[in-house]
Amino acid sequence: MKLPENLIEKLENRKQNNSLRRLPSFNNLVDFSSNDYIGFSKSETIFKQAHHYLIENDIIQNGATGSRLISGNHSLYQNTEVFIAEFHEAESALIFNSGYDANVGFFSAVPQRNDVILYDELSHASIRDGIIMSNAKSYKFNHNDFEDLERLILKFPDTNIYIVTETVFSMDGDCPNLEELVFLSEKYNCYLVVDEAHTLGVFGEKGEGLAQYLELHHRIFARIMTFGKGLGCHGAVVLGSQELKEYLVNFARSFIYTTGLSPHSVSTILLAYQHLEIEKLTIEKLRQNIIFFNQQKNLLGLKPMFVRSKSAIQSAIVPGNENVKRLAQQLQDKGFDVKPILSPTVPEGQERLRFCIHSYNSEEEINQILALLSNFVF
């Protein structure tokens, strides 16, 4: 059956704007695009240990068989959630099937009709989708602008206010001043919620995330960790109080009405977390590569192009979908996998090349890709 005309028109508009998305083909290019920051997705050791864990515990099962509230809450879940809670020094941990599910489930269920959500304007689509599904009123504040945030807070006295941000923003790679944000939330008795998708495996001695690294985690209402980046597997977890976990089990629809993760997925999560505790050299190598990347881009005069970032995400602004796609193709033709980020994913005029740094990138590869970028730009 033919697609409705109004949908065809939307696709044509994307084509005309040079912003039509297509699924990429697999390639063997040097990886500067994936979120696999410390290489766990490629770890043969984690892969084999996850399999052996299932065999040793006599768990021969391909699927969860149902939602966790019906038949899918296999024993691995409890063991893994206890381990994660202890790792993150949290009272409780609740695993969701993905970071998207965790954000949609949390924000659609927790803030109530008479509550207010104040969220950073660059918050991830999954956060915004959850907020749209909420009965609470919501307002965005200027990116990392806590004077603007305080102005909004003062408009809603005697109201439950949820402040929402990311500890590393997925498109810019920058971080908020978390100490200042925690102080502000405490000053006005707000509930601070942070998405740490891009800090797990990156910040902290054992990759525990930015809030815990700064020793601010006990002063935050909820932390949302995603496993598809630094852990190199799949799923996510909401960290918070035991009461919060109980509430989400009862009211988060993206948790209640979905089949649970397979035992193999959960065992991979558990083994990946165990490896965080022993992969300190790998995490340190990632930090050194981030520092080296920043040093080299400065030496080559590329600093004005880039959003200021000390994370594994480094974004070079190249306005215009056509321009950024052409530049990305030039780098790919030279053997480097760097993806263009197009509008409307980012605002028009803020299109960019998004470089993801990994522990397994060599200094030579970093030098080469930045030299190529410099040659193509200048």
Description:
There is one protein chain. The chain has helices at 5-16, 44-56, 75-87, 99-109, 125-133, 146-153, 178-187, 210-213, 242-251, 253-256, 263-276, 280-299, 321-333, 363-377, and strands at 30-31, 92-96, 116-120, 137-141, 161-166, 191-195, 222-226, 236-240, 313-317, 336-337, 339-341, 352-356. The protein is of the alpha/beta class. It has a seven-stranded mixed β-sheet with strand order 2-8-7-6-5-3-4, with helices on both faces. Strands 9-12-11 form a three-stranded antiparallel β-sheet, covered by helices on one side. The protein has a two-stranded parallel ribbon with strand order 1-10. β3, α5 (125-133) and β4 form a beta-alpha-beta unit. The radius of gyration is 21 Å and the shape is globular.
Give a quick summary of the entry:
The protein has 378 residues and is of the alpha/beta class.
- Assign the structural class, choosing from mainly alpha, mainly beta, alpha/beta, alpha+beta, or little secondary structure: alpha/beta
The rounded Rg comes to 21 Å
Q: In one word, what is the shape?
A: globular
Q: Specify the helix fraction band.
A: 40-55%
Span from first to last CA?
A: 50 Å
Strand content: 5-15%
Series of H and E elements: HEHHEHEHEHEHEHEEHHHHEHEEEH
